[in-house]
From TrEMBL:
Keywords: DNA-binding, Transcription, Transcription regulation. InterPro entries: AsnC-type_HTH_dom, Dimeric_a/b-barrel, Tscrpt_reg_AsnC-like, Tscrpt_reg_AsnC/Lrp_C, WH-like_DNA-bd_sf, WH_DNA-bd_sf. PANTHER family: LEUCINE-RESPONSIVE REGULATORY PROTEIN (PTHR30154), TRANSCRIPTIONAL REGULATOR AZLB (PTHR30154:SF34). PROSITE patterns: HTH_ASNC_2 (PS50956). It comes from the Bacteria. It comes from Undibacterium oligocarboniphilum. One of its GO terms (biological process) is response to amino acid. Coiled coil: none annotated. Residues 1-62 form the HTH asnC-type domain. GO terms for molecular function: sequence-specific DNA binding. This is Lrp/AsnC family transcriptional regulator. GO terms for cellular component: cytosol.
């Protein structure tokens, strides 16, 4: 990956809807060369995709929580099956394996505290292999999802 690729990534993080022509002008390459580079970055999965960043409150998701999840290793050994189930829940918008006292940290959204509580107890705790949860309610989002610090 060279400086042109890094520049493409920086500009696409700032504006994923930028036209190829405008992007080419910004990085000082021809439009065909720029398009070829963008497609290569997409094929190599350097660019994972393009999404609109939606304000959760605007779509009725007024509560965000971070949930630490531990697995019950004695009763359940198929970790990948637990992960498949976690990925299927639309309320879980991020899931990461972590080191330390817990196995995963989840970023969860819900309409309100009652909905969050129901999701945690009636859905998440019912997944075979889940031993325990610890949730932390987000009081205020200071810095929402942003691009990576590239170059």
């Amino acid at each position: 990956m060279d400086n042109y690729d890094l520049s493409i990534l920086r500009h696409l993080q700032d504006d994923g809807r930028i036209s190829n022509l405008h992007l080419a002008e910004k990085i000082h390459l021809s439009a065909p060369q720029t398009l070829r580079r963008v497609r290569t970055l997409e094929e190599k999965k350097v660019i994972r995709g393009y999404v609109a960043q939606v304000a959760p409150q605007a779509v009725g998701l007024g509560v965000m929580a971070f949930v630490n999840l531990s697995l019950d290793r004695e009763q359940f050994r198929n970790v990948r099956e637990v992960e498949r189930q976690l990925m299927a829940f639309p309320n879980i918008i991020e899931c990461h394996t972590i080191s330390g006292d817990f196995d995963y940290i989840l970023k969860v959204v819900a309409a309100d505290l009652k909905s969050l509580s129901l999701f945690l107890t009636d859905t998440l705790m019912q997944v075979p292999g889940v031993a325990s949860l610890r949730s932390m309610i987000c009081m205020e989002e200071i810095k929402p999802v942003s691009g990576l610090p590239i170059g």
